[in-house]
Amino acid sequence: MPHTKNDKFRLGLVQTACAADPNQNLAKAVWKIREAASRGAQIVCLEELFRSEYFCREENADLFALAEPVPGPTTETLRALARELGVVIVASLFERRAAGLYHNTAAVIDADGALLGTYRKTHIPDDPCYYEKFYFTPGDLGFPSFETRYGRIAVLVCWDQWYPEAARLAALGGPTVLFYPTAIGWHQHEKEQHGAAQRDAWITIQRAHAIANGVYVAAVNRVGVERTLEFWGSSFVAGPFGEILAQASTDKEETLVVDCDPRQVEEVRRNWPFLRDRRIDAYGPILQRWGE
Q1: Contact 171, 155 (CB under 8 A)
Q2: CA–CA separation, 62 and 54 (whole Å)
Q3: What span, in angstroms and rounded, lies between the C-alpha atoms of 90 and 119?
Q4: Which of 44, 54, 95, 154 lies 20 to 30 Å from 284 when distance is taken between CA atoms?
Q5: Does pLDDT of 74 surpass 90?
Q6: pLDDT at 292
Q7: How far apart are CA 16 and CA 274, in angstroms?
Q8: Tens of pLDDT, residues 33-50
Q9: CA 221 to CA 203: how far, in whole Å?
Q10: Is 48 a catalytic residue?
Q11: Domains of the chain, residue spans
Q12: What is the pTM of this model?
């Protein structure tokens, strides 16, 4: 029986540590996607920049060699896997668009192996050990949604998760799930004093996006220590009222498999009609950098 837009579907979130060898990371991702599919996952999301260690810890022009075109070798491997397993794959990649022009890009591959499209990370951070402005041009594709075999989804990437504007615009495309491939963690010298509050803020802001938009939110983070950064894992899925449905540990490789019911989105929005009550006539000033 064909899948309909109101049918439940199952999400798979792959939380791993990354090695220095991109081929090793790709092989692990393929294995983990197979694991998720064997447990019933139908839409599987990998963590941000899963093919490498988080190279933005430093500004090093040699590291541009990690980039690849999209479509390219990694998407071809994942397209074949998606087609074989009948799963949708969301994969975050270092995209080489042209010489000197690179993006932090998420590719969405449908269950028949078709590359449905890409989202390019819009908000680019520049913090100690997160020197992404050196590598990435801000995205220019807007906030698209993708109609997959199992459900409509949207993708934002890591630093985007702090911006309610991005979540709202993505949600207005009608997805049931907002995915956030992520690479975030602690500076080890800050962890004892600030670590718990930082992680709590990260969870809270994304639960708020789920509530404000009446959608599922799936955040997929990495684990492991890479020099001075300790990635805090904690991958999770929040329901459309912000409830945590499943959450991974802070320090172990895990694959979460979570049911997603589009009818829950309908139910929550009927009772909490935030989209109905939006005053779009009053929001013009949000396009200004700062109010007067």
Answers
A1: no
A2: 14
A3: 10
A4: 154
A5: yes
A6: 74
A7: 36
A8: 999 999 999 999 999 999
A9: 11
A10: yes
A11: 9-271
A12: 0.97
Compute φ and ψ for 46, nearest 5 degrees.
Answer: -95, 160
Give the tens place of pLDDT for each residue, 130-168. Answer: 999 999 999 999 999 999 999 999 999 999 999 999 999
Catalytic choice (18, 28, 47, 48)? 48
Q: Which of 132, 158, 226, 230 is catalytic?
A: 158
Band (2; pLDDT cuts 50, 70, 90): confident
Question: Measured between alpha carbons, how far is 155 from 75 in angstroms, rounded to an integer?
Answer: 16
Q: In the annotation, is 158 catalytic?
A: yes
Encoded tokens for 56: 């933005």
Q: Angle of helix 164-171 relative to helix 191-213, nearest 10 degrees?
A: 30
Q: Which of 18, 53, 121, 260 is catalytic?
A: 121
What is the topology classification, in CATH, of domain 9-271? Nitrilase/N-carbamoyl-D-aminoacid amidohydrolase (3.60.110)
Q: Quick check: helix, strand or coil at residue 114? A: coil
Greatest Cα pair distance, the chain, in angstroms, is: 57
Say which residue the tokens 């999770």 belong to: 236
Q: Grade residue 3 by pLDDT with cuts at 50, 70 and 90.
A: confident
| Strand, helix or coil for residue 29 | helix
Q: Return the residue matching tokens 């397209």.
A: 79
Please tell me the distance from the alpha carbon of residue 3 to that of residue 6, in angstroms, as a whole number. Answer: 8
- DSSP string for residues in 54-72: -GGGS--GGGGGG-B-SSS
Strand partners for 178: 154, 217
Question: 94 near 68, Cβ under 8 Å?
Answer: yes
Residue in the structure block whose two tokens are 């995205």: 139
Average pLDDT, the chain: 97
Q: Strand pairing of 229-232 and 223-226?
A: antiparallel
Beta bridge partner(s), residue 127: 130
User: The tokens of 258 are what?
Assistant: 């979570």
Q: For 87-99, how does the pLDDT look when each residue is reduced to its tens digit (9 = 90+)?
A: 999 999 999 999 9
Query: Is 252 a known active-site residue?
Result: no
Separation between Cα atoms, residue 46 and residue 33, nearest integer Å: 8
